[in-house]
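User: Some background: our group keeps a shared notebook of sequences we're curious about, and every so often someone picks one and asks for a predicted structure to add to the entry. Today it's my turn. The entry only has the sequence so far, pasted here. Could you supply the structure so I can complete it?
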Amino acid sequence: MSLTATVENAIAARPVNICRYGRRGVVLLCAAFCAASAQAKAAPEDSGPQVWINPGIYSKHFDSSKGLRNNNIGLGAEVLLAREHVLMGGSFVNSNRARTHYAAYEWRPLHWQFAGFTMGAGIAVGAFDGYPNYRNGAWFVAPVPMLAIEGKTFGANLSLIPTVAKRFDGALAVQIKLRVW
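Assistant: Of course. Here's the predicted structure to add to the notebook entry:
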C-alpha cells in the first residue's frame, strides 16, 4: 500500500473535527506552503544524514479552558536521511499528563530558503501511545502536517494537531531542536 493510500485511509477512518481557528490555520498554512514553494530555491545538499535532538514539544491548545498541559517535556530525535525524508522518534509527557512514545516518518516535498533558513513542509505519519481518551492509551497511527525551519545548528518543527471529538484537543505545536550531527 502506498504512503498516500495509507494517509487517505487514516484520515477517512477517523473524522476530524477541527475547531474554527484550526480550519483557518490549515488554510493559511497551505496557502503559505503553496506561495513559498512557487518561489522555492534549491538548497545545497549536505553530505550524509543530519541528526537533530529536541527537549519535547510546546503546545498552544485551541481551547485553553480545559487545563491541559502545554509544556510537554521529553526527549526526541530526528534523522534527516535526505532532503525529503525524515525519521523521528522519542517520548514526552503529553497534554493529558501521561507519557507518550512516538515513531514517525516525515515526507517533506516542499522546500525553500528564507533569511538564511532552510524550510521544508510536508506530512508526518507516526505511531503514538499514551493518550488516555483514545484507545485507553494504546498505540495508534495518525498523520500530522509539519513545517520544519532549520538553520545550521538550531531549528524548529511546527505542527497543527487537529481536534478530534472526545479523543484529542487541538493545538499548534512547536518543537525546538538542536543539530548534533
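Suggested note for the entry: The CA atoms of residues 49 and 81 lie 5 Å apart. DSSP finds two helices and eight strands in the chain.
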